[in-house]
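Reviewers of the previous submission asked for a worked example of the structure-prediction workflow described in the proposal, so we include one complete record here. The input consisted solely of the amino acid sequence. No template or homolog information was supplied to the procedure at any stage.
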Amino acid sequence: MNLGSELARKIFKEGPRGKGAVVLALKGDLGAGKTTLIRGFLKEAGIERVTSPTFVLMKRYEALKKSGFLNIYHIDAYRLKNKDDLKILGWKEIVDNFKNIILIEWPERVWKKIPKGFKKIEIEHLEEGRKVIL
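From that input alone, the workflow returned the following structure tokens.
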């Protein structure tokens, strides 16, 4: 939660960059903490009630006006069969808008559709906690 909150503060401070959406790709095994990190990110954005979009595939939240962003999209690609399944979510319009932030779990299912310049976050669940690689 704390790391997600810290990432959100950093991205909000930087603001939109004008070259498409800011994309955070969260990779890790089931139960590693991807959704927890996203909850921290969204809490920093003023969004308290967050559930994983596992069955709906994507959730859209309005971003804080002061951040300069319009929307934050939370995508769970676990149930997608391949990169082409992103089309049904309106991927091109979402990713092309520089005022969007995209938080995507299970990005390995759609690597080829994630634009250059994305931020990869790997989370490993260890016996004594978690290891996060940015």
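The chain has one domain: 2-133. We consider this example representative of the routine output the project will generate in years two and three.
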